[in-house]
Write a structure and sequence with these properties.
Order of helices and strands: EEHEHHEEHHEEEEEEHEEEEH
Distance between the termini: 24 Å
Low-confidence stretches: 336-349
Shape: globular
Number of strands: 15
Strand order of the largest sheet: 2-3-11-8-13-6-5-4
Mean pLDDT: 84
Structural class: alpha+beta
Number of helices: 7
């Protein structure tokens, strides 16, 4: 069934005077988390100049030859560079993009692009990560209050000063799309997916179309979703945030982890066909953090176990999708279905 569209306005929440307005901000964040699972932050400590500078830094990395970027290849620790390697369970195909993922902890040993190749990159990235972590911790305090936990409950579980921290900054580069060629059926710059983390903070320059959301998931254990999508636009300086599967589970499904995707451009009058850049910050728990909601709807698991279980669910859905596509191709060609396994499924969206 073809996707349908619905006009929705995601909440725009000001973080101004956070210490004095924390109760008001908590109320607004909890309401957003309980409904669409998406919201935009304004008036944060990350300025438009900070965001623009990080996008310039990101572009310098992606402009490097693949041979240089390949010196920091993607690993199972969820760090490093990948290209056309993330396969979505919703489509069974790879996103046409490249990304570079960075963490604070020991996983980044030998995974920073060299100073010779890109002077100053590491320091600029770590400064931006620290500012984004500060904003994230404000959200964590509010969500902890909303669920009846102590203020520092989620902050301690996502302590990026620890060696086993898993929080990730991901730089993304979606490749340009040929405006004169028809877009293949079912092609997306990023297929429909939910994030696995606590909460994702997304940066995007205004005017770069494509991000769409589809609320409606009622249980973190279900991947399925409906077909009613809403485009999400960005204002300069805004941070668009979404609840991840981790917080949906940790809230006993009270807060919603919403399916989202990046649509391929189709309209030369409205869409951006050139290269598209975005930056995502995934707040992922320390591997030994204990995860269980206040109502104990789901068994307690560690951060490491939660990530592994999420990967297994993704693989199961992906394999089912690949069998469906293979069977359809076999019927069309009257040939035996292929049995090739996917190249990679990454732990973060």
């Amino acid at each position: 069934m073809a996707s349908e569209y619905m006009e929705r306005t995601i909440p725009r929440i000001s973080m101004r005077d956070f210490p004095d307005r924390i109760d008001e901000i908590t109320t607004e964040l909890v309401k957003a988390a309980e409904t669409d699972g998406f919201f935009a932050l304004t008036d944060t400590e990350i300025s438009i100049a900070d965001i623009d500078a990080m996008f310039e830094t990101s572009a310098t990395f992606f402009a490097l030859p693949d041979e240089i970027k390949g010196t920091v290849p993607f690993t199972r620790n969820n760090v490093g560079w990948e290209k056309n390697a993330q396969i979505r369970p919703s489509t069974g195909t790879a996103d046409m993009k490249e990304s570079y993922q960075m963490q604070f902890g020991e996983a980044m040993v030998d995974k920073w692009v060299s100073e010779d190749s890109l002077p100053g990159f590491k320091d600029k990235a770590k400064t931006f990560m620290a500012k984004t972590q500060s904003v994230s911790e404000k959200l964590m305090i509010c969500f902890a209050r909303g669920l009846g936990f102590e203020d520092d409950y989620f902050v301690k579980a996502h302590d990026v000063s620890r060696p086993n921290a898993q929080t990730v900054l991901r730089l993304l580069h979606y490749f340009a799309v040929d405006q004169d060629a028809p877009v293949p059926e079912g092609y997306f710059r990023a297929g429909a997916h939910a994030d696995w983390d606590l909460v994702t903070l997304l940066f995007q320059p205004p005017g770069f179309s494509g991000l769409e959301i589809c609320p409606g998931r009622e249980s973190v254990t279900k991947f399925g979703h409906g077909d009613v999508w809403t485009p999400v636009s960005f204002a300069a300086g805004d941070i668009v945030c979404n609840i991840g599967d981790l917080l949906m589970s940790w809230s006993d499904d009270r807060f919603k982890s919403t399916l989202h995707r990046v649509r391929a451009p189709t309209d030369p009058e409205k869409d951006w066909f050139g290269p598209r850049y975005s930056i995502a910050y995934f707040n992922q728990p320390c591997v030994d953090a204990v995860i269980q909601g206040p109502a104990k709807k789901y068994p307690a698991v560690t951060g490491e176990e939660f990530t592994r279980n999420a990967m297994q669910r993704n693989f199961a859905v992906l394999e089912a999708k690949k069998k469906e596509l293979a069977a359809a191709a076999a019927v069309a060609s009257q040939a035996d279905p292929p049995h090739e396994l996917p190249k990679a499924v990454q732990a973060s969206a």
